[in-house]
Amino acid sequence: MVLLLFGPPGCGKGTQARLITNWMKIPSISTGEMLRAELRAGTELGRMAQSIMAAGGLVGDDIVNQMLTARIQCPDCRNGFLLDGYPRTVEQAEFLDALLARLGLPPAIVLHLDVPEDALVGRMISRRQCPTCSRVYNLLHQPPKSPGICDDDGTALITRKDDREHVFRERLKTYDDVTRPVLAHYHDHTYHQIRGDRSPGYIFEAITSVLEKELSGESLVN
Ligand code: ADP
Fold this sequence. Notes:
The protein is of the alpha/beta class. It has helices at 13-24, 31-41, 44-54, 61-71, 90-102, 117-125, 165-179, 182-185, 200-221; strands spanning 2-6, 28-30, 81-84, 109-114, 127-129, 136-138, 190-195. Helix 2 crosses helix 3 (44-54) and helix 4 runs parallel beside helix 5 (90-102). The mean pLDDT is 93. It binds adenosine-5'-diphosphate. Adenosine-5'-diphosphate binds at residues 9, 13, 30-32, 35, 52-53, 57-59, 64, 85-86, 88, 92, 162, 171.
């Protein structure tokens, strides 16, 4: 099963990706995380992406398409995978369709986490992330057990540079201008809209009930 988690920055994709991964035992692939890893490793690609990410723009389609092509052919993706933050442009969506077909994989199932824009900025201000394992916290709704420390590995939590308010607003604008139109591309795919303005537990329940139906349909067909 190829799952695609779609939604604006701050809608909770990272949190749900982690829950889905644990539940379905499939890897979650975040192109944003992959780019941040390149940046931390100081690679040429990381250096190139840095200024674009810091300004709230999108890294070039060719670069992310290439990164993704290599990643989904890794052995851990054999039983399916979840995409978080990809595709973000219509070109990427068209590329992904062709790539999945070429690899003999089923078309992506789209889970759209829909959150009203005015809720997103408030969420972003209280968002913190573990730079080691990438787990996302929210100081208001999902705080770590010890203030400022990751529950899983004890690393000091950080605020992502691109979560500063002016950059975040730019990311929202990029989403509206370039990424939201990707939804129209998926009108003939399996598409589920999920209300994302609720607690992570509720959202995850909604997602699991959708996926249980998809999984039972899949086993009937196979
Ligand atoms: P969020 O989902 O919180 O907006 P991500 O971690 O997915 O953030 O992405 C961070 C940044 O990485 C984006 O703002 C963008 O600059 C870059 N990026 C991530 N995924 C893509 C993509 N598929 N295409 C182009 N740029 C991307």
